[in-house]
Structure formats: C-alpha cells, structure tokens
Amino acid sequence: MLEGGCHCGAIRYRVEGEPKHAALCHCIDCRRQSGAPMVAWTLFGNDDFAVTRGEAKVYASSEHGRRHFCADCGTGLFYTNEVVFPAMTDVQSATLDDPDALPVRAQIQTAERIGWIKDIGTLPAFERYPGA
Ligand SMILES: [Zn+2]
Ligand SMILES: [Zn+2]
Predict the structure, then answer these.
(1) How much distance in Å is there from the Cα of 23 to the middle of ligand 2?
(2) Residue 4 Cα to ligand 1 middle (Å)
(3) pTM beyond 0.85
(4) How far apart are CA 73 and CA 54, in angstroms?
(5) Distant-in-sequence contacts of 27-32, Cβ < 8 A, 24+ apart
C-alpha cells in the first residue's frame, strides 16, 4: 500500500496493488492544468484507490475528463473519465510520498510534447542550485 497527498496536506489518499498503467503524459491538457511540462500518471481500479482525508475539487477539463485538485494549495491529484476508463482513477504519481515506488513505463502523447524535453538528458545537471 502506498500513500500520497497534496502539498498542504488537506487531501490524502492511498493506492494498493499494481497500477494498470504508469505513464508520463505530454498532452496539452495535462500541461495547461498542472502548469508543469509533463505529468506522471498511474491508473488504479477504484477498489484499489481511496481518498483518506479531505475532498478534492473537480474541474471538467473536457467533455468527460475530470481533474481533481486541492482547492487550498492547487496540487493536481487525480483524473477520472467514466467513458474512457470507468470505475478507475488516474493518480498523479509525483504526489506519492514515495514517487520512486511506481516508475513510469512509457511516455504518451508525445505528439504534443514540448520540443526541448526530448533532449533534456543532455543538459548540465546540478544536485542543488548551482553556486554563485
Ligand atoms: Zn492541499
Ligand atoms: Zn495528458
């Protein structure tokens, strides 16, 4: 069992078992709603997912897509779509207490990927902010 939550702690959740997928999404909707260049998702059946504290606010980001986020701190948490994957919840896996526990296995929607992300592995990297 793994736990996670939003930045302020008002919303907590837990997941169990193996996710049905674990993918890094580059789509425009994920980018615009999260404010981040990409979003990591892990999909669970609702039997293996539970919100254990608080209640997320729900935003209709498309006809059937629903994005659930913390109204207090703004953290994006869950995605549901009763047409595309009924009775399941996609969880933003970067909000897990241990995000390394569920590594992504694929990148999806790369047709909408920001151009510079493809070469990000070649950039200079610093363990902390680079010194003055
Ligand atoms: Zn919060
Ligand atoms: Zn997406």
Answers:
(1) 9
(2) 11
(3) yes
(4) 12
(5) 27/108, 27/109, 27/112, 28/112, 29/61, 29/62, 29/65, 30/109, 31/112, 31/114
